[in-house]
Amino acid sequence: KKDAEELSCGFEVIEWESIFWKEEIEPNIFKALIDTTFAVYKPYFVGEPIDPDCFCIRTGFPYSVRHLPWYINNDNMSKEELYYLGHIKTLTHWSKQNKVKTD
Asked: Which domain of life does the UniProt lineage start with (predicted)?
C-alpha cells in the first residue's frame, strides 16, 4: 500500500479500496466485489462481476498488483498517458478523474 500523496486521486483511492479488504476468508484471500483491472472468470460465466450475488475474491500480497493509473502525475503526464486519455472511448471511474484533471 502506498501513501496517498503518491496517488493521483489521493485519499479517495485509499478510502474506496479499503472497503474491499475487510472480509478475509483465508489468509490473504478476501471476499469482495471485483472490477475489470484484472479479473479471471470461470468458463461460460454469465452475469456481472459487480453483482453482489457473485462470489468474488481478491488476493493480497504477493498476488496483488500496482494499479498504475492511480500513480499518474497529472501535472507531468507522459505522451502515452496523454494519448490514452485523449483517445479512450469508455471511461472508468479513475480514468474519468484523471481526464477531468487534464481538461
From this structure: Bacteria
